[in-house]
Amino acid sequence: MDQSIIRISKELSDIQKSSDLSLAVACRDIDVRNVKALIMGPHETPYEFGLFEFAIRFHKDYPSKSPTVHCVTTNGGRCRFNPNIYSSGKVCLSILGTWRGERGEEWSSAQGLESILLSIQSLLSSNPYENEPGFEDANDESDKKSQKEYVQKIRHETLRISVIQRLEGYLGLTAHGPPHVGEEASDGDPDDDDIDESSVPFEPFKDLCKRRFLWYYESYLAAVQKGKSETKVGQIFARMPFESPGSNSMDGKFNYTELERRLNIIKTAIDAEPQKWAEEGLASKARESTVAVNLQHQFEQVVEAFKRGDMPHNVFLENDNPFVWVITYFGRPMTNLDGGLFRIKMNFSPRFPEEQPRVKFETKIFHHHIASDGTACYSPNPLKREDVRSHIEAIFSFLEDDEPAYDPRKIVNPEASKMYWGGGADDKKKYNRRLRRSVQQSMEDFPE
Questions:
Q1: Among 29, 43, 15, which residue's Cα sits nearest to residue 116?
Q2: Taking Cα atoms as reference points, which of 361, 332, 331 lies closest to residue 346?
Q3: 412 vs 368: CA distance, rounded Å
């Protein structure tokens, strides 16, 4: 086999198996040289939790020569998100040979796909104004004003273009609201083996982006509120001194009220999907589809595993539907969850595991890894995405972790995260008290 193909395949596999939740890569099995990558905007930057897509083309002489990288998230070539990421999609980096760099910064075969993606991600900084050559040390009053204005419009367009437009496209929504009847795209029959793969649009991040939207929804709303406090509806974006009028720039007007409306519509649409999955699941069960049979078998295995466990957790199928699991979690003694009783619902898609389960706590709990609407933030073993026990173990693991490491990519409950990690010992005590109160309340709220 071609050595460059072996190298590319290994690099893709390494990223897909890594614990870095801010990077995702994918390619068609028939074309490993053309790769799609998704980079999540870093926390505490104007790009925070944005979903930026890049197209990467590996040449036959890779790794001797760097791949070609093109930014896809440009609003159709109309938005320059960074001094180094043009509206044309060009990415200016010395390791790509698209920008002159210092000696030693050029490409070498020791580098690879991950180093390229991390280099791009580093451009998405808290003060991207400084990325423009000649502006690295710009610090007079006019520059400070421009820096603030640049951050303001990047935050707005990150939400509008990288998040809202992307999710509306996935959901078949328009900027004005829900789609007309019949407009929403179908995912097709999961049991149809006669589909020509090359004729189907390649959207490998569709499910991932939906799940991340649920994780970061509260952060998106917080960005909206911050934007509202700093700008007015209809206020025109300030043009930076390094932007080209009408072409390589970021032009537009602020309208956070409209962005908030569209975010809420997206949230409603994504929240409605599990019910649709449940209905499709019953039909899938009736025809004994492969996914239905597999989930039923896994359910029976989990039931037996719970019986052998040291805690009285249990699970049942809602309406005898293998696509809807309901778990009762008993808080482990000698932990903050001691005495708690929590109901967790897992909804599975008929396209599982390509579409991963949606997991929600139906019992209210104040926890840094659980959003206020109950959405659980967890990461199953990437090598066992099809194994439901792996998902359950990951959920139980974060619940029972008494000393969790800080990971800004897992901020799904900003209030709880700030209390646990953002303050001092007093704030952490407040967090623990809030958690304990929700644990005590869980017994009273638990359904009969």
A1: 15
A2: 361
A3: 7
Task: Point out which residues pair with 68 in neighbouring strands.
Answer: 57
Distance, in Å, from the CA atom of 280 to the CA atom of 190, rounded to the nearest integer, reads 11
Show the tokens assigned to 176: 């004005």
3-state class (DSSP) for residue 311: coil
Q: Residue 225: how many CB atoms within 10 A of its CB? A: 11
- Rg of the chain over CA atoms, in angstroms? 23
Q: What are phi and psi of 54, to 5 degrees?
A: -135, 145
Positive or negative, the CA dihedral 189, 190, 193, 194 is: positive
CA angle at 101 for the pair 10 and 20, rounded to the nearest 5°: 35
What is the C-alpha separation between 233 and 271, in angstroms, rounded?
29
Per-residue pLDDT band at 170 (split at 50, 70, 90) = very high
353 upstream amide cis, omega within 30 of 0? yes
Residue 232 DSSP code: -
Rounded CA gap, 328 and 446, in Å?
10
What is the Cα–Cα distance from 79 to 191, expressed in whole angstroms? Answer: 40
Closest-CA residue to 12 (of 1, 24, 3): 24
Q: Number of C-alpha atoms within 13 angstroms, CB side, residue 52?
A: 33
Q: Is the pLDDT of residue 282 over 50?
A: yes
Three-state DSSP class for residue 266? helix
Closest by CA to 408, choosing from 219, 143, 156, is 219
| DSSP class per residue in 51-119 | EEEEEEE--TTTTTSPPEEEE--STTTTB--BTTB-TTSBB--GGGTSS---TT-S--TT--HHHHHHH
Average pLDDT over residues 108-129: 96
Looking at the annotation, which residues are catalytic? 92
Report the amino acid identity of residue 406: Y
